[in-house]
């Protein structure tokens, strides 16, 4: 997995084929409320997902609680998960912060520890101009040799990564190879695919929201990074595989099962506690602790979660 990019006098050599594709779950960080990693639980989840035929694993994203972590804990998580996955699937590490300097530091650390790529959300709190965003991402791209996935989540960051900006970045920096587009508007993802892929055919476009996977594939995108794949990977993986083989009837059938799952996230906010309880309901032994200010689900909401999962999934996926 480490031959994607080869440094040549400060430049990057890019393979012809897209580096990342398919279903890459954003992994909840399995830990205890005091911040210690639940190593056994983390291993259980990683093994379950790899055995479920996912195409990669994304650690320290929104569902991985990066925003509640110190930089030290983020480094500790990366240092644990990368060697444990051990090249079985590509590993992406989220390194974005509101500081360009700290983002570069975390990105260099991920590279040194053997990550296959990094995912970088844009700075939040202060809105940046497009010129400011271009300079921010350019500094990161110039300081690491890893493939970089942009992360667009405007409902949380307050700033959208426009298709024009994304194209400009992809043209300027060959190691900016794709984007996770977490937006409600399908038109935004469509414009990314039409505008950026026209100039950079191997630039990969992933949906962020679970129920946009089928739309993204139909428009010419490359896959999804959906939180539901951390507890029900059969659905997203099944949609992607069926679409790739031309079994659109099967893909649509699975899409109809997947589509209601984002309603689970309305049980609480932030909803990484929902994802962890859903993982536990799959029979995977993990700590369901979360980092404050997120709190564990109440007994009532746990019951509601199990009821909703049973309704949405039927007999297709067995719950414990």
Automatic annotation (TrEMBL):
One of its GO terms (molecular function) is lyase activity. Pfam families: DHDPS. The keyword Lyase applies. GO terms for cellular component: cytosol. The keyword Lyase applies. Keywords: Lyase, Schiff base. Belongs to the DapA family. This is Dihydrodipicolinate synthase family protein. The lineage of its organism: Bacteria, Bacillati, Bacillota, Bacilli, Bacillales.
């Amino acid at each position: 997995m480490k031959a994607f990019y080869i440094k040549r006098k400060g430049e990057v050599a890019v393979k012809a084929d897209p580096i990342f594709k398919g279903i890459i779950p954003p992994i909840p960080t399995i830990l205890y409320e005091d911040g210690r990693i639940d190593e056994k639980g983390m291993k259980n989840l990683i093994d379950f997902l790899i055995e479920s035929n996912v195409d990669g694993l994304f650690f320290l994203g929104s569902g991985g609680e990066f925003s509640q972590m110190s930089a030290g804990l983020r480094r500790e998580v990366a240092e644990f998960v990368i060697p444990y996955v051990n090249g079985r699937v590509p590993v992406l590490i989220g390194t974005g912060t509101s500081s360009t300097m700290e983002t570069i530091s975390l990105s260099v650390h991920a590279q040194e520890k053997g990550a296959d790529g990094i995912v970088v959300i844009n700075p939040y709190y202060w809105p940046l101009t497009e010129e400011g965003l271009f300079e921010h991402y350019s500094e990161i791209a110039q300081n690491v040799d890893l493939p970089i996935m942009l992360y667009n989540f405007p409902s949380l960051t307050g700033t959208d990564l426009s298709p024009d900006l994304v194209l400009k970045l992809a043209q300027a920096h060959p190691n900016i190879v794709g984007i996770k587009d977490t937006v409600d508007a399908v038109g935004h993802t469509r414009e990314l695919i039409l505008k950026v892929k026209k100039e950079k055919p191997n630039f990969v476009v992933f949906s962020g929201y679970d129920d946009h996977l089928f739309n993204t594939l139909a428009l010419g995108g490359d896959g999804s990074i959906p939180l539901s794949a951390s507890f029900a990977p059969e659905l997203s993986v099944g949609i992607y595989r069926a679409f790739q083989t031309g079994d659109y009837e099967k893909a649509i059938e699975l899409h109809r099962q997947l589509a209601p799952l984002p309603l689970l996230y309305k049980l609480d906010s932030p909803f990484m506690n929902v994802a962890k309880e859903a993982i536990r309901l799959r029979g995977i032994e993990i700590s369901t602790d979360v980092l404050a200010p997120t709190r564990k689900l109440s007994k009532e909401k746990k019951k509601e979660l199990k009821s909703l999962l049973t309704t949405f999934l039927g007999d297709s996926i067995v719950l414990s």
